[in-house]
Amino acid sequence: MTGRRWRLSGGALLGAASALAQTPSWPAATFPDPLRFSSLPLNAAEATAPPPGRWQVLSTTGYFNVWQLTWHTGTIHKGWDLIGKPLTSTEVETLAAAFPQDQFFHVDIEGVRSDLVAAYGLSHGLAVALQVPWIDIGSPRWDAVPETFHGSLGIHNMRRDFFPRGQTTVYVRGRRGTISELNNRQAGQGLGEVTLTLSGPAGTWLGATHRWAVSIEAPTGERDTLRGSGGWDRGVRWFATWGEGRRETRLGLGYSFLDPAGTWLGIERDDTWHAQLELRRPLAGAVDWRLAMRVDTSPLASFTDSDIGQRSFYWLAGVLVPVGRTGFVAFDLGENYPLTAHVPDFSFHVSFGLLPAYRR
C-alpha cells in the first residue's frame, strides 16, 4: 500500500506540473544516512526561495542500504558455523570479553525515506520551508541487489553473505558504552523528524547570490529509534549560488546544535558541521545532469574512535527532466566512495517537484 501511495502522489505531481510556466531551482535529494538524518543534516532544500506569495513543492522517495562492519563479527560467525543466521548477543558478548579494547561495530540497515518539502515565498526575499519525512526501516529487503552487483564484477562482498538478508542490526562498541540493537528491533515505519526553516537574502558578492537559513527539527519521530532522537535540534546555514536554472552551482555550509536531551539509539550526540557542493548542467536536449558532494561530521564522534565516529563523504549523481516549465522529475544514485565512515553503501532516489501558478 505504501508503494502505491508513492506512485499515486508522484503521478499527481507530474500531472499538475505539466501545465505550469517557470523554471525554479531544484535541490538534490535528501541525505539518506540513518546515522544523521534524525540529527538535522544540511539540506539544500533549506535554501528554497519561491517568489513572494507562491509555493514550491518537492517530493522525494529514496532507498538506502548500509552495510558496515569490522572483522570481528564475520570471523566469529564463520568460526561458530553460523553462516546465514542472524548475529547473536552471545557472539558480541564473547567478542567484547576477548577484545576489551577494540571499538568494533556491525551495522546492517536498509530502508526507504520519503520527504515532502513545501516552501512559501514571503516579502523582502524571505521564505519558510517545512520538511516532513516518512521513514520505513527494514524494507523492501533488496539486499540481493548489492550482492549480485558485486558478484558480477568480482568484487568482495564484505561478508554480506555471512548473514541473512533483510535483517536490521546495529551494534557499536564505543569508548563509553555499547549500542546493541539486534533481532530486527529497529525495523518498522513511521513519521521522522519534521524540520521548519526560515531563510533570507544575504546579498550578492563574489559573483554569487547568498542566502542564510535557520532551521529547527522537532522530535516528531519515535525516540530511541532510527526515526527519532527525542530532541529539539537547531541549525544555522549559509548558501551561495552561482548561475541559475540549468547552469547552477550551489555551495552550502552548516552547523547543527544537537539537543543534549536527544540521542541516537540512547547515546548522547555531538554537534555536527556540514558542507555540500551541488552542480547542475545541460546533458542532452531538455535533460540536465546534476551532482551533489557532501562532507558531514558524525554525531557519535565522542562516543567512538571507529569509522562511525569519523567524517563522512557522500555523493549523489543523476538526471533531471523538466515537466512543463515549472515541474521536474529526477533520478539520483548515491555512493559512499571511498567507503569510509558510516554512511549508506548506496542509495537511489526518485524526485518530483513543481512551482504552482500564482493566484491572486
Task: Explain what this protein looks like in three dimensions.
With 360 residues, this protein is mainly beta. It is built from four helices and 17 strands. A hairpin with a 2-residue loop joins strand 11 and strand 12. The longest helix has 16 residues, at 2-17. Residues 1-22 have low confidence and may be disordered.
- DSSP summary: helix tally: 4
How far apart are the first and last residues' alpha carbons, in Å?
37 Å
The percent of residues in helical segments reads: 10-25%
SSE class? mainly beta
Radius of gyration: 21 Å
> Looking at the structure, what is the overall shape?
globular
Average predicted local confidence, pLDDT: 87
Give me the strand/helix succession: HEHHEEHEEEEEEEEEEEEEE
How many β strands by DSSP?
A: 17
The parts where pLDDT drops under 50 for at least 5 residues are 1-22
Largest sheet: 12 strands, antiparallel, barrel
* Strand line-up in the sheet with most strands: 1-2-3-7-8-9-10-13-14-15-16-17
The proportion of residues in beta strands is 35-45%
